[in-house]
Target: Transketolase
Amino acid sequence: MKKYINQGSKDTRSGFGAGMTELGQKNENVVALCADLIGSLKFDDFKKNHPERFFQIGIAEANMIGIAAGLTIGGKIPFTGTFANFSTGRVYDQIRQSVAYSDKNVKICASHAGLTLGEDGATHQILEDIGLMKMLPGMTVINTCDYNQTKAATIALADHHGPAYLRFGRPVVPNFMPADEPFVIGKAIMLNEGTDVTIIATGHLVWEALVAAEALEAKGISAEVINIHTIKPLDEEAILKSVKKTGCVVTAEEHNIIGGLGESVSRTLIQNNLVPQEFVAVNDSFGESGTPAQLMEKYGLNADSIIKAAEKAIARKN
Model:
């Protein structure tokens, strides 16, 4: 029986909301800050149950980051929440100076990441945020794949000391990670063992990687699928162990091909065990308005693209 099966579709942002609800009950130092998007970030229950620990900052994201940094001085654990575009691009200077450089224990939580923000359009989508955040010294970067994993990551971050960026999304997607799956920051999860190609995926592309692996199996190709939920620190040991066995790799992410997971994996391979690598990512462009399904299809962020990339990577093996 397969362990990772679709238990029904849910949005990852609701996983964040559920995680915040649980944290509010178990950790009195956890506080929440929101930039006028309570419903979108699923902060409703936290605000209702802990109004004294909830701060509505309004459309003032830079101010939100500054307040969050200040709250850490008194021992609080602030979780900030807004869209990924506003969580990173709009406030990069404040994050760099007040959070990362100062090593403040702020959890920057970003919904509506990537293309799957969809119909809100290209100006609200962001495909550069992983790159922006992973370049900051000391910043932990997490990109979760489904509801259960987002909830688990949110809870885990409260016990992790230091700046962190948690990236999740707007649409409903398959919920396939077991609710009791341990979430260990910096440790990859093996979803499917294989011998012919390693597929390393993050975020919404993890499920597509599993779908691709099943299709590849029908073609007689054995694909190993690894869920990289933590992009920084990267689980290099898991990656190198896998590619030593398979001899080639595909990386898959809902992010720009420049600056994302794929480049982190490439650096690891160059420094340790160089093998053919193919990328499934947005090829250095902005997005556009459309449904999540339309955009993922147009920009090649799906199982079909992963299958083609896997076949190409295998063909390149010596």
Q: What stands out?
A: The two ends are 35 Å apart (CA to CA). DSSP finds 13 helices and 14 strands in the chain. The chain has two domains: 8-175, 189-316. Residues 8-175 form a domain with the Rossmann fold fold (CATH 3.40.50.970).
